[in-house]
Amino acid sequence: MAVFSRILSLSALAASSAYLVSAGASGSGTTTRYWDCCKPSCAWNDKADVSSPVSVCDIDDNVLSDGADATSGCDSGTAYMCSDQSPWAVNSTMAYGFAAVSISGGSESSWCCACYELTFTSTAIAGKKMIVQATNTGGDLSSNQFDLAIPGGGVGIYNGCTDEWGAPSSGWGAQYGGISSNTCSTFPTALQSGCEWRFDWFEGADNPTVDFVQVTCPAALTAKTGCVRDGETPTGSSSASTMAEAATSAAASSVAASSDATSAAVSSAADANTYVATSSSAVAESAAATVESSSYVAPSFSVAAATSSYVAPISTSATAVASPSSTYYYDDEGECEL
Ligand SMILES: *[C@@H]1O[C@H](CO)[C@@H](O)[C@H](O)[C@H]1NC(C)=O
Prior knowledge:
binds 2-acetamido-2-deoxy-beta-D-glucopyranose; alpha+beta; 25% helix; globular; disordered C terminus; 10 helices
């Protein structure tokens, strides 16, 4: 569990070995879960060379402008973990989130605000992936441990959740591990979706093991923390696409679409939970493959059918997804025509 006040000793211990770590840490590790509402350690100044320390919030969950200097709410101060540093599903096999970490041979200077792609290697979610940004550490973490920040995951040693949200005196559920069944609807609204994530996308997995590799952070993660490591340019859209948003946006396009075939294709993509977003051509290609493999027939689609092998509802930007006028149509040569 993430512990803010043990960090001093951990930092002192690890500082001497920081030079051993090169960018691109990888290996096998373990996971746990926590949500203690405390200011995370990477929110302090000078933990690592970053654009700015991890954002923290006041007791009302509003971002603090002077958060780096603010004492943790778990130490009688004013700074708490912001609720939006919660996990979410990007699509059926990828989730994004945040974690307290301890990487073998490293220190906060090497991992604060770094991102790691975790591939779960045990439990029902084996094979699923999650990219986490390191926002915290903990003196009670083992080597290569990722303590996933999940509302309702247990407060661990320190509990800011009772002060901040009126949680029970030792947090929601067990102090370690948190709630054991889905009681997320009783949580503060701001924490409910992250809590629910544990019981849907994460399938209630209990501390699955992982293989991990350091990756460039997605902008959707750094947009929430405001923390980018020096020399890194976050990838993708800073808006946090989710499966639900993708389906909603596809449905909106579907309603607005003038072509029956486009509607069918959009629906087909939405049914398959296809990720509709960002600017990746690979995403567009895989979505197109989904469309091609669907068996819809569009008998009245004569004009487009004469010039196109398929109509891809996937556009090249999140904005364009919601705007039928900028939908791209792909012709036989695979070129784009508006
Ligand atoms: C899920 O999203 C990730 C990240 O954008 C992407 O790489 C992957 O191909 C997507 N998977 C599916 C099944 O859509």
